[in-house]
Amino acid sequence: MDAAALPDGVYTLKVVASDRPSNPIGRSQIGELISRPFVISNATPILEVTANRIAGRRAELQFRGRVGTGRITSAEFSVDGGEWLLVFPNDGIADSSQEDFELQLPELSTGEHVIGLRASDGNGITGTARVVIRVP
Prior knowledge:
The chain has no helices and eleven strands. By secondary structure, the protein is mainly beta. It starts with 8 loop residues before the first strand and ends with a strand.
């Protein structure tokens, strides 16, 4: 089964096995099993910046990560292409299809800065966004 070819959703599989081709009528057996529900999520998480504010040389940024199926499991940010740093969602745990995040960045130098954002779902699929801010 090629899960990448299926639309996002919750699925179950039914497997049927039979030895009928190699046994006479009346002596064959058949069995079946239905799986537990499982999620297929191929869509990239969507990131949306919901607010940003400059206070002196500090920037505050709010963003939302969401997926149609599955859950957001992590988010990170980077300033000017530097190290990626983990950020926790506002409710303290990344376990929902939509999570809100808030960043309070350290003091930044005067000028333009690029804030990179990324969020991943339970399948490791990552969505990205960026925000350009100007510090006076």
